[in-house]
Every structure is written in C-alpha cells, then in structure tokens.
Design brief:
Layout: H1 2-15, H2 23-26, E1 29-43, E2 51-64, E3 72-85, E4 111-123, E5 126-133, E6 136-137, E7 140-141, E8 151-159, E9 165-176, E10 183-184, E11 186-187, E12 200-201, E13 204-212, E14 217-226, E15 230-242, E16 247-259, E17 269-281, E18 284-295, E19 324-333, E20 342-354, E21 364-376, E22 386-396, E23 408-420
Antiparallel strand pairs: 1-2, 1-23, 2-3, 3-4, 4-5, 5-8, 6-7, 8-9, 9-10, 9-13, 11-12, 13-14, 14-15, 15-16, 16-17, 17-18, 18-19, 19-20, 20-21, 21-22, 22-23
GO molecular function, one term: porin activity
Keywords: Signal, Transport
Family: Belongs to the outer membrane porin (Opr) (TC 1.B.25) family.
C-alpha cells in the first residue's frame, strides 16, 4: 500500500487538474500486484553451483490514465516496481536465477526498485506509445518469466482503423532486463556459443500486422532488424474448428533469419518451423507438436528473452542447429466443476540431432518433462488470488561444463494478488 500511495501522489496533480477531466480520469486504471516468486533449478552434473536459487517478493504498481478530450488525446502510464530478497545472504551460495540484480561483487541485491513512464497519444482508434514498452510480438518478445517483466525503451505506433486488422511499427534502442534497473544496449542471445559473440546493436526496428480472418482463423506477419546483427521475418497461422467431437486447434509458426549489415555476431542463417495440433473436447485438450531448425546456425533471439515458438520450456529453448523436436501435451481445465479455477498441464518434449557450433562433428539430445498446476480463486474475499506451481525434469547429454542449458530438476512457485483501485 505504501508504494501505491507514493505513485498516486506523483500522479495526483495531473489527475485532479480540471483541464484533464472526463475521459482522462474516468478511463484511468490503478492496480497494485503483490507477487511472491520461488525459483529452484537443481543442477545434476558437476556444476560450479549446486543450483540456481532465489526467493523474492515483488510489488508492481500500474497507474494508467485515459486520454484527454480532442481530436488527438494524450495520456501517461506509470510503472512502479519494487523487489525484495527473501533468502538473505544464503542466496549467494547459489547461482543467480534472474529474479534479483547481481552486483559487481557477484552478490544479490537485498532490494531494488524503479519507476518507468510511457507517454501516449490517440487518434480515433490508433495509438502511439513513447517510453517504456513491453512488446509481446514473435520477433520482439518481452519475457514475463521472472519477478518483473523485461521492458524496452522506444516508440510503438499501432494502427487500428480497419476492422480485425492491427498494424504495428516499433523502434527501440535499449532494454531493461528482468533482473536490472538500468537500460542497456540490445544484444543477441548467445547460449552455448551459438554465434561469434553476443553482439550489441544500436537499436531494433519492427514492422508487423495481425489479422483476424474470422473467429476460427488468425494470422500474423512480422519483420524485425537488429541493426548490424540480424534480421528476422515471421509468419504465423492459428486456427480453431469444430469437428463434431470437439475443437481442432492448430498453431503454425515460421521464422526466417539472416545476418544484417555489418554482421557483428558473425554469419547467421536459420529457418525455423514449429507447429502444434490439438483436440479440445469439454475440459480436455490433447496436443501433438513438432519443431525443426534448418540452416547453418541456431534460431537467433534477443538476450534475456525466450524464442516465440509454441514450446515455452523452462530449462532450455530447443532451438539449436538442425534440432528436431517431438512434443506431446495434455491440458485439463476444471471449469464447471467443484474446483473451478484450477488448471493442470503436462507435456513431454524430445530434441534430437542437435549440433553445437563449438563441438563440430557431434550430435546431442535433450528432453524435458513438465508439469504446471495453477489455481485462481474465482469468488469470495480472495477472488483473483492466483497460485501456480511448476516442475520440470530436464536432461541432455551435452558436456557438463560450459553449456547454458544443463541437466536439472526445476521448481517454480508463484503467488500473485492484484488490488484494483479503479
């Protein structure tokens, strides 16, 4: 509540100004989320640390205004973050997990916080946001997988004037990583030494469109250029059709990537396909998926983010050179039962024919068995309280030393609750 008061105090001179009445204040929203996050990645083969382990408490305040009246409406969004280490000094006996900042002495911070802002403008249904951005696009994805979401500094124009069509133009020159309070240059991710170096870039620009053909078919097309590092194009298709015995679901994704400009990370050449097909019947969904990398390199992604393939594995990304991935998944939603609000998921993924750039002539394998159980209280005084527990059993036959992804048993537990003040 203290953080809410601080940020509301910052906003109050603007919010209460008569000139900004009507939609600016009437459409404003203020929320405070308390997030408790436990992370334990228990390594299984001769690592320097026995585990990557953190336990943290976070507070996320979002104060978003509406828009001022007029042909061009203006507004502002404020984001306040505060995180606290709950394990004390003992946390430094383990590798960092990305929940807390790490100092030059390699010790975790006891607490950290920041305030970010975004100015915005609106003409009819189209919007412009300048400042802190959290894009969730296939070629520019702000990772939400830790205590706080990764964010970028830049400008995002979204055109919404045609029904069912969204067109995006975005430029960003800095990233604020999940465990940091500072902006830094955007880099290409380089796990397992996939490229010559984790090259930095002066910025990234992106163009893209999302079109909903009807209630059954949705498409995406995007292109991004990480200046002088790599450029990437994306095509996506999602479908949902009633076939009598249930709904048949599909999600197809194609990435085409190559080095760009001065090629600061070296040669990059990759085509990555992923597809998952599912049958949803009542509360059950059963899915089968396949992914494959083609080309001379692995699929490039931005440092600190996950690749936007359908498989969101906790311990590895399954996008190595020439890797083929077989995937089976089962979901059960307890809606319309006595346990309404409870959801369960399990999946198994197997990656084969993996090539590592620095280990030529050898092939490797990896596999992951994941479980995910979440419960959101649907009614009562604690309505909206969200509990989530995840577990992954991950193994590979890569060398024990020097690899970004190592055999482990991983556990994550989240407790989230959001207060809405308007």
């Amino acid at each position: 509540m203290r953080f809410s008061a601080i940020f509301l105090g910052i906003l109050s001179p603007v919010v209460l100004a008569p000139a900004f009445a009507n939609s600016f204040t009437d459409d404003s929203q203020v929320t405070l989320t308390a997030r408790n996050f436990y992370f334990d990645r228990d390594y299984k083969r001769g690592d320097d640390f026995p585990a990557a382990r953190d336990w943290a408490q976070g507070f996320i305040l979002k104060a978003n205004s509406g828009y001022t009246p007029g042909v061009v409406g203006f507004g502002v969004d404020i984001l306040g973050l505060a995180g606290f280490n709950l394990l004390g000094d003992s946390v430094n006996e383990y590798a960092a997990s990305g929940l807390l900042p790490v100092g030059k002495d390699r010790k975790r911070a006891d607490q950290y916080g920041e305030i970010r802002w975004t100015a915005k403008a609106k003409v009819q249904d189209s919007t412009l946001h300048v400042g802190t951005l959290t894009p969730m696009f296939p070629v520019l994805f702000s990772s939400p997988a830790r205590l706080f979401q990764q964010n970028y500094r830049g400008a995002h124009l979204q055109f919404n004037e045609i029904e069912n069509l969204k067109v995006h133009a975005l430029y960003t020159d800095r990233v604020n990583q999940r465990d940091s309070t500072n902006y830094e240059k955007i880099r290409v991710g380089n796990p397992n030494g996939r490229f010559n170096t984790a090259a930095e870039s002066s910025g990234l620009h992106m163009l893209g469109a999302e079109y909903k053909v009807n209630d059954q078919i949705a498409t995406q097309i995007f292109h991004a250029d990480l200046h002088d590092v790599y450029q990437q194009s994306f095509l996506g298709l999602k479908t949902k059709h009633d076939i009598g015995i249930g709904n048949f679901l599909s999600d197809l994704r194609l990435f085409v990537s190559e080095d760009s400009g001065d090629a600061l990370a070296g040669d990059i050449e990759n085509q990555h396909f992923s597809g998952i097909f599912g049958l949803n019947r009542s509360n059950h969904t059963f899915s089968l998926g396949y992914m494959q990398s083609f080309g001379d390199t692995a699929l490039p992604t931005l440092a600190g983010a996950e690749p936007a393939v359908f498989l969101d594995s906790m311990s590895a990304d399954f996008t190595n050179i020439n890797e083929k991935v077989y995937h089976v998944r089962y979901d059960y939603d307890f809606k319309d039962t006595a346990l309404n609000g409870l959801k369960f998921m399990t999946r198994y993924s197997k990656g084969v024919d993996i090539e590592i750039r620095n280990l030529p002539g050898k092939e490797f394998e990896q596999d992951a068995l994941d479980f995910d159980l979440s419960y959101r209280i649907p009614t009562g005084k604690l309505e909206g309280l969200n509990l989530r527990a995840r577990y992954s059993h991950y193994r590979n036959d890569m060398p024990a030393q020097g690899m970004a992804f190592r055999s482990d048993n991983e556990t994550r537990v989240n407790i989230d609750y959001t207060w809405k003040f308007k």
